[in-house]
Design brief:
By secondary structure, this protein is mainly α. It is 57% helix and 6% strand. Helix 1 crosses helix 2 (40-63). Strand 1 and strand 2 (15-16) form a beta hairpin. The chain has a domain at 21-65.
Length: 65
Amino acid sequence: MSDFDEPLSNPNGRVDVPIDLDRDTLFQLMLSAHEQDITLNQQVENILRIAIERHQKEQMGSEGN
């Protein structure tokens, strides 16, 4: 079992997800978060939530075929 098989849980029930971003992408995310008056963590969490929801919808759609 590798380190990636088990999520890193927080006391608040959330899971730490390590991500590797290049400088340009990180800068764009920081700028976007600043414009929305949210933290970078909140911005990344929102993006991940949207991606997960889209993936789940795609999976539900492909199960009906």
